Amino acid sequence: MGEDTLSRFKGELDSFFLIVLLNMTFGALAMAFGMQYIVTVVLGLPVWQTNPVIRIPAAMVALVGFGLGMSWILTSARMLRGIRDIRRESRHSPEPVNPETLTGWILKMTAHYRENQKTLRQMIVICRLGGCAFVMLGIVSLLQAFAAGSAGGDWWSWAIPVIAAAINLTIGIVTILISIGFHRYASSWDQRLKTAASSEDVLQHAMERK
Amino acid sequence: MAERRTPYEIYWEILVYCRTPRGFTAVINRCDLNSKTGQEYLEFLVAKGHLARIREGDRVSYQSTPQAAEYIALFSSLYQKLFDTSPGFRL
Fold it and tell me: pLDDT tens digit string along A98-119?
């Protein structure tokens, strides 16, 4: 049981580490492209349209987006730090691993999940919404490219929207995949917490036994 | 807000750490407890016979008793089973 449990534990830890790292990277990308998109939209408007009525709401949206993006990245970084410590410990531990050392790591992971359970649920929702928004932006860019191509303009008039569509669709799809990964991780741990709670009677009995 | 650890998890951490005699400060530092709750947990485990209080002059240390081994083994087995029985997560 020990070796199999250890490899499962390490595999899961590596997968979660990777997914949080991806989440942080794509959070930063999403924030950067989101900001750039808003700035481009405002700057791309004809001068007579860039009055404060348009600029102020756009700047506010950009600011809120920036704040959300920053908190997304910082939350991911906090989550990553907890996982990184457990991962480092498990990677540098000499083999064979003592069953109690393994139980200690499992306990740390359990505590980490309890600590981040609420954040993880928020991440699932944010990633889904953000992912869908980027997919929609990608589709809009594709339609722009199609329209530009049909109008028979210069090559860059359709090539730039195609590049934008590729970037937006990649960010969108990866972000949705990250949310699915988080969802699967959370479901797996919810099941474990239920099992752990149901075994408390057995532990209580062992504690009281003299 | 939900607690990070259940009391049973804290008992296990204390009992494993106290396999060799440990002072009060070392236990609360290692198990991340404050003085008040640390004292309560240690008193509880001593009362249940899982920890022995050893006095050497002014110094008091705590050591797990043979009775604690059963709890430690049971806990380890239950928590390792969490990874064997539930559907795992992999990319």
Answer: 888 999 999 999 999 999 999 8
Alpha-carbon distance B63 to nearest alpha carbon in chain A (angstroms) = 16
The H-assigned helical ranges of chain A are 2-43, 52-91, 99-151, 155-198, 200-208
Task: Give the domains, in start order, of chain B with CATH numbers.
Answer: 7-81 (1.10.10.10)
Q: What does the alpha-carbon distance between residue A113 and residue B80 come to, in Å, rounded to a whole number?
A: 16
Name the average pLDDT for chain A: 84
Cα-Cα-Cα-Cα dihedral of A187, A193, A198, A203, to 10°? Answer: 160
Q: How many CB pairs under 8 A join A and B?
A: 109
Cβ–Cβ below 8 Å for B79 and A207: no
pLDDT bracket for residue A92 (50, 70, 90): confident
Residue B80 is nearest to which of A5, A16, A188, comparing CB atoms?
A5
- CA-to-CA distance for A62 and A37, rounded, in angstroms? 9
User: How many C-beta atoms lie closer than 10 Å to residue A206's C-beta?
Assistant: 20
* pLDDT in the model for residue A160: 85
Q: What share of chain A has pLDDT > 70, as a percent? A: 87
